[in-house]
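Postdoc handover notes: sequence design on the structure in folder B. Input tokens:
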């Protein structure tokens, strides 16, 4: 770095700046954020609306049917629980064959 008021290079200094992102690092991050995330079912025909990471955080709600399947999400896990007793009650009432 040269002092503009110095007539010669006798006071020239070298400055090193570490941990600065380079243009190709930024391009890599931009390419990764440009991806979308969607959830599909086991049939390969059903899918959720794709969400882009460029819009910020991505969230998908996993819902049960309110009768036989309940869901819970915590941390990295999603738990689906099948309600056998509700199904058994419906079967005993004769409304489920």
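Designed sequence:
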């Amino acid at each position: 770095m040269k002092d503009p008021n110095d007539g010669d290079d006798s006071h020239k200094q070298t400055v090193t700046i570490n941990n600065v992102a380079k243009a190709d690092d930024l391009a890599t991050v931009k390419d990764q954020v440009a991806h979308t995330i969607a959830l599909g079912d086991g049939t390969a025909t059903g899918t959720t609306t794709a969400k882009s990471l460029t819009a910020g955080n991505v969230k998908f709600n996993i819902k049960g049917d309110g009768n036989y399947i309940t869901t819970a999400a915590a941390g990295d896990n999603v738990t689906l629980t099948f309600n056998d007793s509700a199904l058994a009650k419906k079967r005993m009432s004769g409304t489920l064959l």
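Context for whoever picks this up: The mean pLDDT is 77. Don't rerun without checking with the PI first.
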